[in-house]
Design brief:
Radius of gyration: 19 Å
Number of helices: 5
Length: 299
């Protein structure tokens, strides 16, 4: 099933051909609603009790053409966004995976389809896009094994990890400034349940800037698998329903983000996420793939 928030954060599901949004707000009106982020996390947590009702009601409602609604981020404020760092073999050029590593990204950095990445005025060397597969946790996970990891996955969504390079003391990794500015976590346009993603460990990740394809890679190039990632993360922190795990990127296609850019991110079955870029200082960086970054990540 493909879940969405739309307009004033009404809950919807897509019909089978993904052309219409079916409003399910009244269908699930008994779910407490502190805010849209809390609402979606509660739905995920109680999914087994609501799934059949949603499936049945879909058959009786005509829905609204998808072009007539404003799609929002499917999880507007996750409890946590956990991001994997340097988690790809860079098109197989690395003989073995780098040591497993990750970081937290600010949950309030989330934006959705049609919204705008706001580049801050800080004197970064460059601002990069990082196309990633986003995984959404379905139930509480602590110290889980790799064998059971997939049973804790609710679904998947397109994710872009926007990154600022060169901030902070020279020679150090400064993840807070680099990763957590407002709007640095675009996701969506849908949250797709895991049963509709047949092989997340071998699916395609693409990202375009102004119509030019920059990133195009397979998750089969992942250094640390999804089960290993979830087992490792859950050994450090408890994962809760609605938490988002960004599974890392292949750095061979990274490029700059500049004022006026239109960025599109797509994985089969997850729809196409489109966001804009605003950079008031109108700075310019080289276009296309950042070959220096690509070469550095090949080791």
């Amino acid at each position: 099933m493909k879940l969405v928030f739309f307009d004033d954060y009404r809950l919807g599901v897509l019909n089978k051909d993904e052309t219409r949004v079916i409003d399910m707000t009244l269908t699930l009106e008994e779910i407490p609603r502190v805010g849209p982020g809390d609402y979606m996390c509660r739905l995920i947590e109680k999914w087994d009790g609501y799934k059949l009702r949603l499936e049945r009601n879909m058959l009786d409602m005509p829905g609204t053409p998808i072009e007539d609604v404003q799609l929002r981020a499917p999880i507007p404020k996750p409890g946590k966004i956990l991001c994997m760092a340097a988690n790809y073999l860079e098109n197989g050029t690395l003989k073995e995976a780098r040591p497993i590593n990750g970081f937290l990204k600010n949950p309030s950095a989330v934006i959705g389809n049609g919204e705008t990445i706001q580049i801050p005025p800080d004197d970064a060397d460059i601002f990069h896009h990082e196309a990633e597969l986003g995984l959404v946790i379905g139930k509480k996970a602590k110290n889980i094994s790799e064998d059971e990891a997939y049973s804790y996955v609710f679904g998947y969504t397109n994710f872009i990890d926007v990154s600022a390079r060169g901030l902070g003391p020279k020679g150090s990794d400064v993840f807070l400034q680099s990763k957590s500015y407002h709007t640095f976590a675009p996701m969506g346009p849908y949250l797709v349940t895991a049963d509709e993603v047949p092989n997340p460990q071998d699916t395609n990740v693409k990202l375009w800037v102004n119509g030019s394809l920059n990133q195009d890679y397979s998750t089969s190039d992942m250094g640390h698998s999804i089960p290993k990632t979830l087992a490792w993360l859950s050994s450090i922190t408890t994962l809760n329903p609605g938490d988002v795990v960004a599974l890392g990127t292949n750095h061979q296609g990274l490029g700059s983000l500049q004022d006026g850019d239109v960025v599109e991110r797509e994985t089969p079955g997850l729809g196409r996420l489109t966001v804009n870029v605003s950079e008031p200082r109108k700075r310019k960086w080289a276009r296309g793939v950042d070959e220096a970054m690509a070469d550095r990540m090949r080791g």
